[in-house]
Amino acid sequence: MTGVVRACLAALLIAVASPAFAVQPDEVLRDPAMEARAREISKELRCLVCQNQSIDDSNAPLARDLRVLVRQRLVAGDGDGEVLDYVTARYGDYVLLRPPFKASTYVLWLGPIAVLLLGALGAALFLRGRRPTVVGGEGATPLTPEERQRLDRLLREDS
Amino acid sequence: MRRLIYILPLGLFVVLAGYFAVGLTRDPSVVPSALIDKPVPEFTLPPLLKDGQGLASAELKGKVQLVNVFASWCVPCRVEHPVLMRLAKEQGVTVKAINYKDKPEDAIRWLNQGGNPYAAIGADQDGRVSIDWGVYGVPETYVIDAEGRIRYKVVGPVMPDEVERHILPLIKSLQGDLQG
Questions:
Q1: What pLDDT digit, counting tens, does each position of A42-60 carry?
Q2: Which residue does chain B place closest to A95, by CA atoms?
Q3: Which residue range or ranges hold the Thioredoxin domain (chain B) (predicted)?
Q4: Cβ–Cβ contact B100 with A under 8 A
Q5: CA-to-CA separations, A46 to A81, A99, B173, in angstroms, rounded
């Protein structure tokens, strides 16, 4: 019983918990449209300290510095792409959570499609090889009259 | 010929396993620098020490040297410090520094304790210049050639093994280019 109560309490706590935001109030830009752009850009950028978080999610001091930098570039009049280029020029493509589509990442982006196609090809070849054994299909030998008589007899015995 | 199709999955497996085998030997926390073979970023930093030199991009030309990013609050920096001391005092390598997000008095006390291997120290108090260098943690160490280009980067503490295997041979070959 107490187990159930505990589980319910835990579920309730999880349900009412609000997400924690890494972005501090003093970082937020006054212009809501520009702030929204900054948030979107920040979600594309990897925090190099924690690696699997974006700088928008991370509490690391470097993530904060980069969030401030993103906002400074926007205020200076950079477009979204220019801000991403600015950061990539310093930290490399690895800083982008979505890897760019270029010569060095063709295997990454096209690999799964290639594997799917290969699998489909393999399956097609396999199924084609099986077809001649289908019962009653072309090439199957019909029963001789003796065989049919014997089969009828066996069926009658059974019932 | 048709049998070859059955060997294909095995071939694919071998190729994939090869990629994974190489990938697993790499340290994922080390991000390759985007600035290798590029000139050092334009910057000017004020000196940390009152009677010492600051650091600016113009001063990183003319000879092969190291730039070390350090902070007094950084534990691995303490580990690499004796290695840098030896490089500077015994091997005659010029080591310059960016002091990252540090209180000047802490950094000065730290240098008084462990010795000062640096020919010049720029104080980067807000870490903005370090972002231009692609710094994402301290310590980091860069090998700069005579033309002021970044040729090599060590993420984390510089260990004696790293010095023997990569840094000293690279410095020697870069200096050789200079004379030749």
A1: 999 999 988 889 999 999 9
A2: B31
A3: 34-172
A4: no
A5: 15, 11, 35
CATH number for the domain running over A19-95: 1.10.8.640
| Beta-carbon contacts of residue B133 (< 8 Å; ≥ 6 apart) | A90, B35, B40, B41, B67, B69, B98, B140, B142
pLDDT tens string B113-147? 999 999 999 999 999 999 999 999 999 999 999 99
Q: Which residue pairs, CB below 8 angstroms and at least 24 apart, start in B1-5?
A: B5/A122, B5/A125
**Could you tell me the pTM of the whole model?**
0.78
State the residue for tokens 């002021």: B148
Domains in chain B, ordered, with CATH? 30-179 (3.40.30.10)
Q: How far is B166 from chain A (nearest CA, A)?
A: 22
Walking along chain B (180 residues) 10 residues at a time, the average pLDDT comes out as 78 91 87 91 95 93 95 95 95 96 96 95 95 94 95 95 95 81
Copy the structure tokens of residue B101.
């997000």
**Per-domain residue ranges of chain A:** 19-95, 101-126
